[in-house]
Amino acid sequence: MNRIVKNFLILIACLIAGSACADSLVNQIGALVSASPTVRGKFVQSKTLSGVSKKLNSEGFFIVDKGKGVVWVTEKPIYQTLKVSDSGIRIGNKSGVLMNLDARSEPSVKYINELVLAIFSGDMSALEKLFNYSGDIRAKDWSLELTPKNTVSMPFKKISIVGSSAIGRISFVSKDGDLTEVIFSDVRLAPVLSNDETLQFQ
Predict the structure, then answer these.
(1) CA–CA separation, 40 vs 98, rounded Å?
(2) What letter does residue 155 receive in the DSSP assignment?
(3) Which of 55, 120, 122, 163 is 20 to 30 Å from 67 by CA-CA measure?
(4) Which helix (H) or strand (E) holds 169?
(5) Residue 142: left (phi > 0), alpha (psi -120 to 50), or beta?
(6) Which pLDDT band holds residue 121 (cuts at 50, 70, 90)?
(7) Taking 80 as the threshold, does the pLDDT of residue 9 lie above it?
(8) What angle do CA 116, 75, 169 make, to 5 degrees?
(9) In the chain, where does DSSP find H-type helix?
(10) Any idea what the CATH number is for the domain that residue 125 is in?
(11) How many CA atoms lie within 13 A of 150 on its CB side?
(12) Predicted confidence (pLDDT) at residue 60 exceeds the cutoff of 90
């Protein structure tokens, strides 16, 4: 699996891991975070590679549908799409599909897909098996720090998340020492996908 694919998978895992924490904390954060079958919004991402001072910046939008999966679209500096579903992961650009990864034949893809689907189906018990966690809630704001229990399977070693009614910022450190921060904005909820959004999942 190449580095670009790995980085996208790490980012999706981080995005969906925002609900993972202890039972009591899950209940408290669950009361703060708005729930909806579909979520969409914008993101700005900055990545600092280990040993390199210059940051790599990108921005775009994402769509989450609990029944269909996740679409992550990077618009700048290079257009690229990532779709995660129960069958696999597809990466493309304006010219077409660049790569298809089948969950049935790729153990790492199957692992990421199971993690995605567990989060969006509300299966918190699955997350508790994967992460050690700590967190804090102040008024309507909350923060979490997650570390994987199985460091062999996970491509990152620490995730830090802050939010309120939605996830606001995620930063994570990979095993290679790379630091990535993603800031979310214009997060919107809806009962169903729009027609244009439905096309993104095809």
Answers:
(1) 24
(2) S
(3) 163
(4) strand 167-174
(5) beta
(6) very low
(7) no
(8) 50
(9) 3-16, 23-32, 107-120, 124-128, 195-200
(10) 2.50.20.10
(11) 8
(12) yes
Neighbour-count burial for 73-104, b at 16+ CB within 10 Å, e otherwise: bbeeeeebbbbbbeebbbbbeeeeeeeebebe
**Per-residue model confidence (pLDDT) at position 120:** 46
Tokens of residue 37, six digits: 């079958």
d(CA 183, CA 173): 15
- Range with top average pLDDT, 77-81, 106-110, 150-154, 158-162: 77-81
Q: Which domain holds residue 106?
A: 3-200
Q: How many domains does the chain have?
A: 1
Say how far apart CA 41 and CA 39 lie, in whole Å.
7
**Which tokens is 97 given?**
């599909």
- Residue bearing tokens 């769509």: 63
Name the residue type at position 166.
A
CB 166 within 8 A of CB 19: no
Sign for the CA dihedral angle at 132, 37, 57, 100 comes to positive
The CA distance from 114 to 119, in Å, is 9
Task: Report, as an integer, the average pLDDT of 56-72.
Answer: 87
Nearest to 73 by CA among 57, 89, 85, 58: 58
Q: List, for residues 33-49, the tens digit of each pLDDT value.
A: 666 778 888 999 998 88
